[in-house]
Amino acid sequence: MIPAFAGPSRGPVFIAAERDFRPYTVAVEALLAIGNQFRRLVETVQDVTLFCVTVLRSAFRPPYYRHEVLEQIHFAMIGSLGIVMFSALVAGQALAIQLGRELSRTGTKSELGHMMVISVVRALGPVLTGMVVASRMSAGITAELGAMRSSDQIDAMVAFGTDPIKRLVAPRMIGLVIALPVLTILGDALGVVGGGFVGLGYHLPLRSYYIGVYKYLTPANLLVGMIKPFFFAILIATVACWKGFTSAGGAKGVGVSTTQSVVISSVGILVTDFICTKLVFRILQW
Q1: Would you give the DSSP letter of residue 151?
Q2: Which residues neighbour 136 within 8 Å (Cβ) at sequence distance 6 or greater?
């Protein structure tokens, strides 16, 4: 037998240990998830913006459904009047209690009317009214349109040649644009009046209180507060109708869309309030 050839010795052989790539995999998956969420957010903002532009265009083109517009004005204004008035009165009194206590400590309680105008007319009144109306109208509009979507009523309107944006969405937006500024004016007035009654508890005469109110109830202060309801109304109507039109999954899907509509509208009002205040302050050079 011929012995096998034995080659030269190569020394010890080292086998590389397997590297654990699981942490890197988790990090990559997390980045992908964040990217997908951001992409969906951008797509949603784009869809809502295009939907809003479409509604605004259709609102100024015939045919005009006057009966539906009047019905939506009644639903938004009269239906929300009681809760807006009560909320504004209580919130104004609560704010006046806080301000009156601090002003009485410094001996400047005569400035309560001034502080109430700045706080209520500029910020608290529009935002509070918008939040109250959004919580009511967003849920109602989304639930109604979502039920119509799930029962194929919207598809039937399209089949018969009726524009659902023109028939269903535009009247609701017009109704809110008309109703919300009126409700804001009433809410501001009740908030300021409620502060006057609280001032009596700090021995501040109503005459002194309303002198401060009239002194600072200037067109500039009114502009800061009264420009916001128009944007709030467009936001509420757009989000509520869009969530109703895109709802799916039957009754459960309508419920989810209704919840999302109220949340998005409420958060959107806060963001819009900040943007409007910043822009108006820059325009007025304050």
Answers
A1: T
A2: 79, 80, 83
Question: Measured between alpha carbons, how far is 19 from 42 in angstroms, rounded to an integer?
Answer: 37
Query: Residue 218 in contact with residue 157, Cβ under 8 Å?
Result: no
pTM: 0.84
Reading the block at residue 169, the tokens are 């969405």
How many helices (DSSP H) and strands (DSSP E) are in the chain?
12, 0
The whole-angstrom separation of Cα 126 and Cα 187 is 8
The CA distances from residue 89 to 79, 84, 130, 191, in Å, are 17, 8, 15, 5
Tokens of 101: 């206590």
pLDDT digit string (tens) for 39-75? 888 888 888 889 889 898 888 888 888 899 999 999 9
Dihedrals phi, psi of 269, to nearest 5 degrees: -65, -40
Domains of the chain: which residue ranges? Answer: 65-284
pLDDT for residue 10:
56
